[in-house]
């Protein structure tokens, strides 16, 4: 793709409405379940419904015992009680999911619709909060360590001060505050489910692929917060990307696919220090990031901020040092080339990797057996 759009920084703003029209006109209408969208399956009936309360009670008591043994008497009595409650909730939830008496897909679809309806915000960045919701979903999941199984989206630990204050999370207070308005309407949803569902809605409603998703995360505690430094540092290069993403369990291909999310959104000087969008349509999910990365000329930007690239032609786009590593490193580059050539392949690989990302750190027992396609038919 060459530079198809008006070559000035303002082009992004000018295009705001156009890309939103694209996203809303062509995608939102199709994906919203309300207002004539495709019908969802009714919630399944619990098998042997009469025995379920006893089953749940039994599991709850077993979980209380297990939690007591696990947590012992460390910490305050109040904390221990809360922990036991959380462990019991997790166990009960697992049974609820298996027996089909948990909230149904139709319940979560209502949350999906409310998030989708909230995406367009006049005067905020390029007119949509979708990009920052994708970033929230990714940062709440990307703390996972596959070796010790800590971190990830299960406990929504970014609610707590140590993690919300981690430098990598600067600016995500906007996304969390935005999601509080949705939480107020659906208080039964866990924060981990809410934030990851937000990331799904944001990608799908911006024109991206369907992301298989399922509910089951539970809210945790401050001591579940992982140490600072688990998310990538944009000033670094390929070795750092592998170090960070291999820890989560991702390979080269998945690292490149996930990075394609930078087709959406922009950098902010008051958040990361970097500045500007990666693409001319920052509210539309596409393979434009790879196309621009490979086919435009890039040079270091001369400015007082952190080292970043700008496109030679318009000087209105940016790339981070870590973005550029995806075409400098031979193994990464072959995937970037594949995704630039074929948006369908990118969509498929992004969907797989992003869906996996959003489930990091969640014990499988907390999930129902199958993922859902929220927002209507799969794309
Ligand atoms: C590969 C390593 C990555 C690095 C170093 C990185 C770095 C950054 C930085 C510095 C920003 C700008 C934040 C700001 O100033 O507002 C940003 C924004 C963003 N990132 Fe990444 N990121 C990476 C991977 C990812 C992944 C895996 C995803 C999602 C799958 C993602 C999605 C986004 C989105 C959508 C934005 C725009 C947010 C907005 O417009 O507010 N990034 N990223």
UniProtKB/TrEMBL annotation:
<keyword id="KW-0575">Peroxidase</keyword>
<dbReference type="GO" id="GO:0000302">
    <property type="term" value="P:response to reactive oxygen species"/>
</dbReference>
<dbReference type="GO" id="GO:0034599">
    <property type="term" value="P:cellular response to oxidative stress"/>
</dbReference>
<dbReference type="Pfam" id="PF00141">
    <property type="entry name" value="peroxidase"/>
</dbReference>
<dbReference type="GO" id="GO:0004130">
    <property type="term" value="F:cytochrome-c peroxidase activity"/>
</dbReference>
<dbReference type="InterPro" id="IPR002016">
    <property type="entry name" value="Haem_peroxidase"/>
</dbReference>
<protein>
    <recommendedName>
        <fullName>Peroxidase</fullName>
        <ecNumber>1.11.1.-</ecNumber>
    </recommendedName>
</protein>
<comment type="function">
    <text>Destroys radicals which are normally produced within the cells and which are toxic to biological systems.</text>
</comment>
<dbReference type="GO" id="GO:0005758">
    <property type="term" value="C:mitochondrial intermembrane space"/>
</dbReference>
<keyword id="KW-0349">Heme</keyword>
<dbReference type="InterPro" id="IPR019794">
    <property type="entry name" value="Peroxidases_AS"/>
</dbReference>
<dbReference type="InterPro" id="IPR010255">
    <property type="entry name" value="Haem_peroxidase_sf"/>
</dbReference>
<keyword id="KW-0408">Iron</keyword>
<dbReference type="GO" id="GO:0005759">
    <property type="term" value="C:mitochondrial matrix"/>
</dbReference>
<dbReference type="GO" id="GO:0042744">
    <property type="term" value="P:hydrogen peroxide catabolic process"/>
</dbReference>
<comment type="similarity">
    <text>Belongs to the peroxidase family. Cytochrome c peroxidase subfamily.</text>
</comment>
<keyword id="KW-0496">Mitochondrion</keyword>
<dbReference type="GO" id="GO:0020037">
    <property type="term" value="F:heme binding"/>
</dbReference>
<keyword id="KW-0809">Transit peptide</keyword>
<dbReference type="InterPro" id="IPR019793">
    <property type="entry name" value="Peroxidases_heam-ligand_BS"/>
</dbReference>
<keyword id="KW-0560">Oxidoreductase</keyword>
<feature type="domain" description="Plant heme peroxidase family profile">
    <location>
        <begin position="126"/>
        <end position="379"/>
    </location>
</feature>
<dbReference type="GO" id="GO:0046872">
    <property type="term" value="F:metal ion binding"/>
</dbReference>
<dbReference type="InterPro" id="IPR044831">
    <property type="entry name" value="Ccp1-like"/>
</dbReference>
<dbReference type="InterPro" id="IPR002207">
    <property type="entry name" value="Peroxidase_I"/>
</dbReference>
<keyword id="KW-0479">Metal-binding</keyword>
């Amino acid at each position: 793709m060459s530079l198809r759009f008006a070559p000035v920084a303002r082009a992004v703003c000018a295009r705001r409405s156009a890309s939103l029209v694209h996203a809303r006109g062509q995608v939102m209408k199709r994906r919203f379940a309300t207002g004539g969208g495709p019908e969802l399956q009714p919630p399944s009936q619990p098998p042997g419904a009469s025995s379920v309360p006893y089953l749940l009670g039994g599991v709850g008591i077993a979980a209380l015992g297990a939690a007591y043994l696990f947590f012992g008497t460390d910490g305050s009595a109040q904390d221990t009680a809360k922990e036991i409650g959380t462990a019991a909730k997790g166990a009960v939830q697992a049974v609820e999911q298996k027996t089909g008496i948990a909230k149904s897909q139709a319940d979560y679809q209502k949350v999906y619709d409310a998030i989708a309806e909230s995406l367009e915000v006049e005067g905020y960045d390029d007119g949509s909060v979708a990009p920052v919701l994708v970033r929230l979903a990714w940062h709440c999941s990307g703390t996972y360590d596959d070796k010790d199984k800590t971190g990830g989206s299960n406990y929504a630990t970014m609610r707590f001060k140590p993690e919300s204050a981690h430098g990598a999370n600067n600016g995500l207070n906007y996304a969390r505050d935005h999601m509080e308005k949705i939480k107020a309407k659906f208080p039964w949803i866990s924060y981990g489910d809410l934030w990851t569902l937000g990331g799904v809605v944001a990608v799908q409603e911006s024109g991206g692929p369907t992301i298989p998703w399922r509910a089951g995360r539970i809210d945790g505690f401050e001591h579940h917060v992982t140490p600072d430094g688990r998310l990538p540092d944009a000033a670094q290069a390929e070795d750092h990307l592998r170090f960070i993403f291999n820890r989560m369990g991702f390979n080269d291909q998945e690292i490149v696919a996930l990075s394609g999310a930078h087709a959406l959104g922009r950098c902010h000087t008051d958040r990361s220090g970097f500045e500007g969008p990666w693409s001319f349509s920052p509210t539309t999910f596409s393979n434009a990031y790879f196309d621009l990365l490979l086919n435009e000329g890039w040079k270091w930007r001369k400015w007082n901020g952190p080292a970043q690239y700008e496109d030679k032609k318009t000087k209105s786009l940016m790339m981070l040092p870590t973005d550029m590593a995806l075409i400098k490193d031979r193994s990464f580059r072959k995937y970037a080339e594949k995704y630039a050539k074929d948006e369908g392949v990118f969509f498929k690989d992004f969907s797989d990797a992003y869906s996996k990302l959003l489930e990091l750190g969640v014990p499988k027992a907390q999930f129902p057996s199958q993922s859902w396609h929220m927002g209507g038919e799969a794309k």
